[in-house]
Amino acid sequence: MATNVFVYIDHFNGQAVSAAWEIVGAARKAAGDLGTGVTAIVIGQGIAGLADEAIQHGADDAQVVEAAALKEFRVEAYASVLSKLLKDAGADVLFLPTTGRTRELAAMVAVDLETGVVPDLVGFEVKDGKVVGTRPIYAGKLMEKVVVATAKPQIFVIRSRVFPKPEAQPGKKGTITKTEGGAGDARTEVLGYKASDVGVSLTDAAVIVSGGRGVSNNPKLVPPAEITDEHQKEVWRAQQGFSLIRELAMVMNAAVGASRAAVDAGYIPYANQVGQTGKVVSPDVYIACGVSGAIQHLAGMRTSKTIVAINKDVEAPIFKIARFGIVGDLFEVVPALTRELKAKMGK
Amino acid sequence: MNIVVCIKQTPDTAATVTVEGGKVSWGDAPLVINPWDEFAVEQALRTREAHGGKVTALSVGPEAAREALKHALAMGCDEAVLVSDPGLSSVDSLVVSKALATALEKIGGVDLAFFGRQAVDSDTGVTPAQVARRLGWPALTLVAAVPALDPAGRTITVDRALDEGRQQVKSPLPAVVSVIKEICEPRYPSFMGIRKASKATIPVWSAADIGMDAIPASALSWPEVYAAPRMETKVEMITGDSADVVAAKLAARLMEEKVL
Question: Would residue B150 count as lying in a domain?
């Protein structure tokens, strides 16, 4: 079967990102509606195994471009390889998962092929032979439908955790075509990585436990005598609060999030921020502890499937979008929940 | 250093945004400089303060976008340029990136072009990479810190915030740098700056002025925009005599509904 729907398998050092297979599933759905097949594209070095994995997750076949010069992801080189491949294949549709790499990769390929790129897709339908994407704008206050009307391929970068991850079918086979590639025009040099101390990645997490300004609000905690500055006392209290949140997150294998207020007050690094100016997340469960629920925070987590709010203030806006609410002191409720879940989950 | 900071004018993030007659409306809410771009302006100014040179603020937008450029001038930018053309309204990033790249070429001799990571209205975040691609410059996106900049050696080293951690990258100049809010704290415009900005003349370049005689068509079209559906959630309050009771009830409910 001629395949004109392509899916780019994003990976970090040869390990597929967890959203990669979700996007194969989305591509399968689009290809079904368009009456065509799905080709996975894998670029890098030491990544040939990802082609088999992509086929097992639903791709019909795969194209692999492997070269030593492609070991590090450098967007300029990857874009050149990907653009050439899509052009040669006469691709109609390209799907990518949303990561720090793919947004700019898709952007550059769109320039190379003078076509349209639609980031942050949260849904699509196929209409008159075209993919009609749905995406949030104005931080989720509005939604827009977008079509790549006049050019091809139609490029869509799809949000994590929007589409279900298809079950792998062990032993499923497909044609894998290997071609040579090079570093092309990449002139940057990757000097190194510092691993993040965020723990479980916020965008991939099935469960997120988040803390807000309220995590510092425990007057019973007495900071050590050597801390004299009032703000430092507040930060110290907040850190005790966040350690309770981390313990709960640990039991649930959850990521730790935070509101902008907590980040701006210096309680926790920006990497943990959820919201309009932080990360946009959509976990199965979002537990908001001491988060009031400012519009800018809700913009980043309102699509979570089940929201649990723990807050002292019954009037906090977070209760308006929560499924379960507890009016209480997070310094008591969070540790109690940790104990309870530890017991229930046999940990 | 010849530095350009590319900015966009957007509605204030606190604005109530609605759809009226198929068009986006933000009522009387003020239009402001895109909040992410304030970090880009600040980083551009700090770069000038450390290495000398000048900072030009550049925007593609309607005449009213002058106000956003004035904000950049009031913060301390030396010059501002507005690219404005009826043919450039409601176009996609493919066209905007072309206009910005062409304008950067017209400014000429640019060493660094700073951007905010994305605009808070369209939220696409693809423009910086597209401008870089058009110019053939490296795109250094999601930059959280600039540990080294060597104008004589023509190199810059940046720390990028990726999902997997901090990536340090060394790049030749010229380059496009898009910044995240971790990089710096934007300054407030000074009184003197505001006075200077109010008197500044901001040249307006049409598409023809920057050499874009034929404006290409947008590849994208937007058949529909609508208000995000309100989620109908009814909160179930969980109460009890002690934290332990409440926690046990919540855990039980989460398991009953197979949430966990």
Answer: yes
Whichever domain contains B123, its CATH number is: 3.40.50.620
Q: Which domain holds residue A216?
A: 207-344
Kindly give, in sequence order, each residue whose CB lies less than 8 Å from that of residue A229, ignoring residues fewer than 6 positions away. none
> Closest chain B residue to A342 measured between Cα atoms?
B251
- In single-letter form, the type of residue at position A159 comes to R
- The reply to whether residue A107 touches residue B130, judged by beta carbons under 8 angstroms, is yes
What is the domain count for chain A?
2
How far does B9 lie from chain A, in Å, by closest CA?
13
Interface with A, mutate which of B156, B164, B180 (most A CBs under 10 A):
B164
Q: Which of A122, A145, A180 is the last residue of a domain?
A: A180
> What is the CB neighbour count within 10 angstroms for residue B125?
24
Distance between A305 CA and the closest CA of chain B, angstroms: 9
C-alpha triplet B132, B62, B71: angle, nearest 5°: 75
Question: How far is B169 from A81, CA to CA, in rounded Å?
Answer: 21
CATH code where residue A128 lies: 3.40.50.620
In this predicted model, what pLDDT tens digit does every residue of A187-236 receive, in sequence order? Answer: 899 998 887 665 678 888 899 999 999 999 888 888 898 988 999 999 99
Q: How many domains does chain B have?
A: 1
- Chain A residues near residue B159 by CB distance under 8 angstroms: 194
Complex ipTM = 0.94
Q: What is the pTM of this model?
A: 0.90
Residue with tokens 């807000």: A212
End-to-end CA distance of chain A: 50
For residue A194, being part of any structural domain is answered with no
Residue A262 inside a domain? The answer is yes
On whether any CB of chain A is under 8 Å from the CB of B90, the answer is no
CATH number at residue A246: 3.40.50.1220
A10 inside domain: yes
Angle formed by the axes of helices A102-112 and B93-107, to 10°? 80
Which DSSP category does A2 fall into?
-
Q: Both A115 and A237 in a single domain? A: no
Contact assignment for B169 to A190 by CB distance below 8 Å:
yes
The answer to whether residue A187 is domain-embedded is: no
- A115 to chain B: closest CA residue: B219
Q: Which residues of B touch A333 (CB under 8 A)?
A: 243, 246-247
Question: Could you report the per-residue pLDDT of B60-69, keeping only the tens digit for each?
Answer: 999 999 999 9
* Domain around B122: 2-205
| Closest A-chain CA to B237 | A325
The DSSP 8-state label assigned to residue B228 in this structure reads P
